[in-house]
Amino acid sequence: MPLTDTAIRQARPREKAYTLADADGLALFIHPRGGKYWHFRYRLGGKGCRISLGTYPEVSLKDARLRRDDARQKVAAGIDPRSSPGTPPAIVTFRQVANEWDTFRTPRLTQGRKGSAAQARRYLDKDIIPLLGDMPIEAVRRTDVLKVVRAVEERGALNVAEKIRTWLHQIFRYAMVHEYVEVNPATDLDIVAAEQPPVKHNPWLRLGELGEFVRTLRAYHGSLLVRLGVELMLLTGVRTAEIRHARHDQFDLDKRLWSIPASEVKQLRKLVRLKGSEVPDYLVPLSSQAVEVIRAIQVFTRQYELLIPGRNDPAKVLSENTLNTAIKRMGYANRLTGHGIRATLSTALYEMGYPSPWIEAQISHADENKVRDAYNHALYVDQRRDMMQVWADYLDFLAATTKPFDSRSMPRYLP
C-alpha cells in the first residue's frame, strides 16, 4: 500500500532501523535516532542499486515521488541516476555515519578499552574525516578509503594505519547494518597494507642491572604518583594498562589481594567474549611492600575512583605514555619499558627456580587459544603471594647494597 503523509508523520523510531515502502522502489528509512530518509532502489546492469533522495520533512512525499519518477526515467534510459546531473546529492555523509558509529561504540567498550575510544576519535578527526567526511557515505569507494590509509603509512605511522583500517572496516559494517550502504569498501585492505618493520621487543633488565634501577626509581624526583605506579608494576608484574585503569574498589589490602575484572585484561578479552561471566577475575596477590605503595598512593587519591587518576582530569586515566615516559626520564630510554618490567620480573623468578605456572599466572600470560591455560590467572594465589614477598624483599636487598651483583645472594625456591 502506498504511503500517506499521515503514516509518515506518525512513524516513530524503534530500537532498530526499519523501512516503510511506498511504490516503484521508493521507501522511507527510519533511523533509531529519529531521522527519516528517502531512498530509491532500482536495478541497473543486473545489479541492485540505491540512491538517497533527501530527508523528510524537507523533502515531502509528493517531492520524493517526483524525484523517484525522474530517477526511474534515467534508469529506463540506461543512465545511473547516482552519477547523472540534476540528481539530489546523497545527504547521509561519511562524517555523519562515522560520528554515529563512534557514539554507538564508545559506551559499549569495557573500562580497560576506553583509551581505544579516545584514540579512535583522535584519528577520525585528524586523518579520516578530513578526507572522507563530506562525501556521501554511499559514494565512498575502495580507492577513497585506501587514500586515507596510504596517507598515514607515508608518514611512517604503520601501527596507526593498521588501526585505521580496522576502524574504517567497522564504520562501514555499521553503515551496512543501518542500510546507508550496500557494500563495505574497507574490506581486505590488509592485502595491500605497507609491510610492517620487524618487531622490536621491549627491552628488559638483567639481574645485575636491577639494583641500580631500583635505587634510581626510588630517588626519582618527577611525579610521586607516577613513580609509585612504576614501583607497583615492578612489585606485581601487571601491565601498564592495568595500573592506569586500576580502581580503589579492586583492592582488598587486608587480604593483600588485587582483583582485576577479566574483561579489563588484554590477555583475557577473547576468552570473556566466548565464555562471558564464567571467566574469573585476574587475581594479583600483593607483597607487604606493594600494600605500602598502594596505601601511599591512596593518601593522595582516595577521593577519586581511579587509583592513579589523570593529571588534568581525575575522572580520566593516565595517558598511555605516562609511565614509559617516566622510565625514560630516569635514564632508561632504550633500556627498559613498562612491558619490559614484566619480562624482567618473570626472568628473575625463573632464575630463582619458581614453577612456571605460578610465574605465568602472576603476569596473566597464557595462550588465549588454550582454555586450560587461560584460567591460570586465578590460581596459586597463596603460593604466588609468598613468591612475590620474596621478590619484594630481594628488591629491597638490591636497593640497599652497592656491591657488585653476586648471583649467590639471590634467593632460591626449594620445593
TrEMBL record:
<dbReference type="Pfam" id="PF13356">
    <property type="entry name" value="Arm-DNA-bind_3"/>
</dbReference>
<comment type="similarity">
    <text>Belongs to the 'phage' integrase family.</text>
</comment>
<dbReference type="InterPro" id="IPR010998">
    <property type="entry name" value="Integrase_recombinase_N"/>
</dbReference>
<dbReference type="GO" id="GO:0003677">
    <property type="term" value="F:DNA binding"/>
</dbReference>
<dbReference type="InterPro" id="IPR044068">
    <property type="entry name" value="CB"/>
</dbReference>
<dbReference type="InterPro" id="IPR025166">
    <property type="entry name" value="Integrase_DNA_bind_dom"/>
</dbReference>
<protein>
    <submittedName>
        <fullName>Integrase arm-type DNA-binding domain-containing protein</fullName>
    </submittedName>
</protein>
<dbReference type="GO" id="GO:0006310">
    <property type="term" value="P:DNA recombination"/>
</dbReference>
<dbReference type="InterPro" id="IPR013762">
    <property type="entry name" value="Integrase-like_cat_sf"/>
</dbReference>
<keyword id="KW-0233">DNA recombination</keyword>
<dbReference type="InterPro" id="IPR011010">
    <property type="entry name" value="DNA_brk_join_enz"/>
</dbReference>
<keyword id="KW-0238">DNA-binding</keyword>
<keyword id="KW-0229">DNA integration</keyword>
<dbReference type="Pfam" id="PF00589">
    <property type="entry name" value="Phage_integrase"/>
</dbReference>
<dbReference type="InterPro" id="IPR053876">
    <property type="entry name" value="Phage_int_M"/>
</dbReference>
<dbReference type="InterPro" id="IPR038488">
    <property type="entry name" value="Integrase_DNA-bd_sf"/>
</dbReference>
<dbReference type="InterPro" id="IPR002104">
    <property type="entry name" value="Integrase_catalytic"/>
</dbReference>
<feature type="domain" description="Tyr recombinase">
    <location>
        <begin position="200"/>
        <end position="388"/>
    </location>
</feature>
<feature type="domain" description="Core-binding (CB)">
    <location>
        <begin position="92"/>
        <end position="176"/>
    </location>
</feature>
<dbReference type="GO" id="GO:0015074">
    <property type="term" value="P:DNA integration"/>
</dbReference>
<dbReference type="InterPro" id="IPR050808">
    <property type="entry name" value="Phage_Integrase"/>
</dbReference>
<dbReference type="Pfam" id="PF22022">
    <property type="entry name" value="Phage_int_M"/>
</dbReference>
